[in-house]
Write a structure and sequence with these properties.
Mean pLDDT of chain A: 93
Largest sheet of chain B: 4 strands, parallel
Distance between the termini of chain B: 37 Å
Number of strands of chain A: 10
Oligomer: heterodimer
Low-confidence stretches of chain A: none
CATH class of the largest domain in chain A: Alpha Beta
Strand content of chain B: 5-15%
Structural class of chain B: alpha/beta
Helix content of chain B: 40-55%
Strand order of the largest sheet of chain B: 2-1-3-4
Helix content of chain A: 40-55%
Distance between the termini of chain A: 13 Å
Structural class of chain A: alpha/beta
CATH architecture of the largest domain in chain A: 2-Layer Sandwich
Mean pLDDT of chain B: 93
Number of domains of chain B: 1
Order of helices and strands of chain B: HEHEHHHEHEHHHHEHEHHEHHEH
Number of helices of chain A: 8
Strand content of chain A: 15-25%
Strand order of the largest sheet of chain A: 3-2-1-4-5
Chain lengths: 262, 430
């Protein structure tokens, strides 16, 4: 059996996925990207091999994706995360037509067809509003861990209305709500709603066609899934490996290319 | 990024070639004229705007046309716009203000010393385009700084369904041009000479016709030149030297070169894999980086709306020596992109997509110019959904380098090209 890899170097975290010739997922790993992007890519890939009990020689083809895709120096090719998310999500659920991917510093909406082909896509412009960073900054101001804010936001009874979607100014906005005595839960409810509104506006530009999937690191945030479902009025599909969809897509492209070479 | 792969590999290309060298020679001479004028040894300078510019009237009085937009973009292409922009911000211009304006105002505060020339102070500020209210204020600021006289030509927007200007609009503009003539007589110290104007109009007519022929050559496969990255090279002489024998000769020469390239079946890239249409001004501060992002995919721009901001010769316009003022008025009213309504802009892009056989449309939206960029979101949707052409919208700026993010731009362009490539592979391409 031969194996292929996808390495997704994101702004915050780097993911690696190994697949076999039959497109089964063999292993997935996640490391913080940090400042040494090349090393993060190598580390994620090495851990994925260790976890699968494989060696470098067992891997036929490697594709890098994400912002750091050109730092996957050991890779055969690079493909953008847009194509990879479309590819990966279609593998998990071929009925998905709209992919919303919220990463550390960007948000994108992709319209895909049944073959995983990108029909259209839009991304946020040079601004981190509506991205993972917005949620991260909010958590920091409230002295909470990132994985705490989602569940807490679900307890909001009367979510606040933020006056900004700016990732920088949200801090002072949150401080002013705290000063007014609003609860942390209600503030977080407002934070998640603000991101949802921003992301849905983006997604409407490619057209919302069901099934809608959420991918990327933020998909692990139940509060975000809930806020998006509320705003869109549709159920959102979240794959169990939502965080790894980009890397999976890259691995699937690697598999196609490796098989084509045979 | 020292360890990155591929990204650093320069794509092989043959952009510009001989026509670029020829253009450089001509533009260097033009910039030298500006420097001489700035040092008091040249004709009086008339500042004017690109859109539908009436440069013929300026040439008929042997005045020196100065286009602050060209000066600004030249500074940006040479990667030197930021200090000028920051100078303007220091004196109070907002970060959101048009960066052409800021670069030019910053240039004023630096004594007019630009990288390519010393820019002469204006002897007349001609407001020949009123579609942009920011531009009107730009000229007012230049008046306040220079104390030069200002002459506004009010040009009504095209607001008829068929795109034809109304007869009273034409008369209205012609009357204003008639009023402009004594102003030119005054600053030039020369009496108006109808024969001289007719000669200028003859050169201009031939130049426009040559340019139209050149522009049409890109329907060939492969396209002999890039209608964005090479066309902008030709736009300098088209505006600064139209109505002169040097300008006319330049376009005669270019047509020959382009004909030859076409005859040899060559183009700007070793292989033309994709034909694209582009809307919007280029990111001047990152022109080469932006160009290479398409070149590495074998993507050639076969048509661009930006190359028609100064005139729409390729759609049948020609200056008329027998009725100069009316034809100049028609140029200003009807035959330039920026005075047209949105439906006409859609139509123009659609004809490029259809007649030029394009695989996709790229919209480069610029932060500086909200006027040019307004409606481009709808434009994207119209082309992507109703016309059914793959359409990409990217954003940066035409002057301010701070709005260009290389990694973000590359990701969007690569994703778009990946999907075009996929369409080609599976045969669902146009």
């Amino acid at each position: 059996m031969r194996f292929m890899a996808g390495v997704d170097v994101g702004s915050t975290q780097t993911k690696a996925v190994l697949v076999d010739e039959e497109a089964n997922i063999i292993s997935s790993t996640l490391v913080d990207t940090g400042s040494n992007v090349v090393r993060a890519a190598e580390q994620a890939f090495a851990e994925a091999m260790v976890r699968a009990g494989l060696e470098r020689n067992d891997i036929d083809y490697i594709i890098g994706t994400g912002y750091g895709r050109f730092n996957v120096t050991f890779g055969n090719d690079q493909i953008t995360e847009i194509s990879c998310h479309a590819k990966g999500i279609t593998h998990m659920n071929p009925n998905v037509r709209t992919v919303i991917d919220i990463g550390g510093q960007d948000a994108k909406a992709i319209h895909v067809d049944a073959t995983g082909d990108v029909k259209d896509f839009v991304m946020n412009d040079k601004c981190a509003a509506g991205t993972g960073r917005f949620l991260g900054n909010s958590a920091e101001v409230l002295n909470l861990e990132l994985d705490e804010i989602g569940p807490k936001s679900l307890e909001a009874t009367n979510p606040v209305r933020l006056s900004t979607v700016c990732t920088v100014f949200v801090e002072s906005d949150i401080m002013s709500h705290l000063a007014l005595g609003r609860s942390v839960e209600n503030i977080l409810g407002g934070v998640h709603r603000a991101v949802a509104a921003r992301v849905v506006a983006l997604a409407r530009r490619v057209g919302i066609e069901e099934i809608v999937a959420l991918t990327g690191g933020v998909a692990r945030n139940v509060g975000m899934v809930h806020a998006l479902e509320e705003h869109l009025g549709v159920k959102i599909f979240v794959a169990p490996n939502a965080h790894f969809i980009g890397a999976l897509g890259a691995a699937l492209f690697a598999r196609e290319r490796a098989l084509a070479l045979k | 990024m020292a360890n990155s792969v591929k990204e650093s590999q320069e794509p092989k290309s043959y952009y510009q070639g001989g026509l670029h060298l020829l253009q450089k020679e001509l533009m260097t001479e033009y910039f030298d004229q500006m420097t001489r004028a700035a040092e008091g040894a040249g004709p009086p300078a008339v500042y004017l705007l690109i859109s539908g510019n009436p440069v013929e009237l300026i040439r008929a009085f042997d005045l020196l046309p100065v286009f602050p937009e060209i000066n600004a973009l030249q500074i940006a292409v040479k990667h030197q716009s930021l200090p000028f922009i920051q100078k303007a911000e220091e004196v109070g211009y907002s970060t959101d203000n048009c960066a052409y304006v800021k670069a030019d105002v910053g240039l004023w505060y630096q004594g007019g010393q630009a990288p390519m020339a010393k820019v002469p102070k204006p002897d007349l500020l001609l407001t020949n385009y009123v579609g942009c209210n920011v531009y009107l204020h730009w000229w007012e600021h230049l008046r306040d700084l220079s104390h030069a006289p200002i002459f506004d030509i009010d040009i009504p927007f095209i607001r008829t369904a068929d795109g034809e200007p109304r007869e009273e609009d034409i008369t209205y503009v012609v009357r204003q041009l008639e009023e402009l003539i004594p102003v030119f007589e005054n600053i030039s110290g020369k009496k108006f000479d109808p024969d001289k104007l007719a000669q200028v109009m003859e050169y201009s007519k031939e130049t426009g016709e040559l340019w139209a022929q050149i522009k049409r050559m890109t329907v060939n496969r492969p396209s002999p030149f890039d209608a964005y990255f090479d066309a902008v090279t030709m736009m300098g002489p088209l505006y600064t030297l139209r109505g002169t024998i040097e300008g006319r000769d330049f376009f005669r020469e270019v047509l020959k070169m382009v004909e030859e390239t076409r005859r040899q079946g060559q183009g700007p890239l070793p292989e033309e894999k994709f034909r694209l249409v582009v809307e919007g001004p280029p990111p001047w501060p990152n022109l080469r980086i932006f160009r290479d992002m398409f070149a590495r995919w074998g993507a050639v721009f076969v048509a661009s709306s930006y190359s028609t901001v100064g005139g729409l010769w390729e759609f049948g316009f020609s200056h008329d020596p027998s009725d100069p003022l009316r034809s100049v008025a028609m140029h200003m009213l009807k035959w330039n992109l920026t005075n047209r309504n949105f439906l006409q802009r859609y139509q123009q892009l659609k004809s490029y997509v259809d007649e030029w056989g394009a695989d996709g449309l790229v919209i480069h939206s610029v932060k500086s110019c909200r006027l040019f960029s307004a409606g481009q979101g709808d434009m994207r949707e119209y082309f992507a959904r109703q016309v059914g052409v793959p359409t990409l919208l990217v954003e940066s700026d035409l002057e301010d380098p701070r709005y260009f993010s290389k990694a973000q731009m590359r990701t969007r362009i690569d994703a778009f090209m990946e999907s075009l490539e996929h369409h080609k592979l599976v045969g669902s391409g146009r």
